[in-house]
Amino acid sequence: MPVEARRGRPPKVDDAGVATRQRLLAAAIAACVEHGYEGVTVNDVAARAEVSAPAIYHHFGGKDELLVAAGRWALDRLRPEDGASLSAPDVVSAFLAPSFADSRCLMIELHLASRRHPQIAAMMAAWHADHAPSWRRRAAGTPAQRDAAVTTFFALLLGLCQFDSLALPATRA
Question: Which residue from 64, 85, 91, 122 lies 20 to 30 Å from 132 (Cα-Cα)?
């Protein structure tokens, strides 16, 4: 199937060829790791991404939307290059990889922020609702058992966000 040509102007890229949106997402993760959810500012993210603060509003509705999008982007990068689905053990292994440590920190910050900010809770609920059907289809049992399995898996991933603070040696087991 032919790929449809992109409409409009191409995304701006830096000298390394990284698009502005990706730089903003990576910068948002770094800022959240350094300052926590509440301490992140649009200006700090923009400076890290080497863009103007208004550029963030071209891509996102604001700080909240940017940080939730950064979390989604981080998890989407766990998928294999070919777009295949990962098994639960593969997701856990990728989630615990040292290269995912900053994203784990972002996930915990987002979930904590969702307890304080209803708009973040709504975005997180929508995000979970987007991902739950694919996991539900893979689970065995009755519909209630499949729902429980998905809830348990999401809770496991949230708990694994604390992995770095446990000071345990990382093993594949």
Answer: 64
What is the spatial distance between Cα 31 and Cα 93, in angstroms, rounded to a whole number? 25
Higher per-residue confidence, 13 vs 157: 157
Which letter, b or e, does each residue of 69-95 get, where b requires 16 or more Cβ atoms within 10 Å of its Cβ? bbbbbbbeeeeeeeeeeeeeeebbebb
* Pairwise CA distance, residues 28 & 14, whole Å: 17
- 82/166 Cα distance (integer angstroms): 33
Q: Give strand ranges (E) for 55-165.
A: none
- Helix (H/G/I), strand (E/B), else coil: 29: helix
Q: How far apart are CA 36 and CA 51, in angstroms?
A: 21
Chain segment 92-123, per-residue pLDDT in tens: 888 888 898 999 999 999 999 999 999 999 99
112: its two tokens: 């904590």
pLDDT in tens, 27-48: 999 999 999 999 999 999 999 9
* Tokens coding 151: 């809830």
Using alpha carbons, select from 19, 27, 37, 56 the residue that is nearest to residue 115. 37
More confident residue, 104 or 167: 104
Burial of 121 (0-12, 13-18, 19+ CB in 10 A): middle
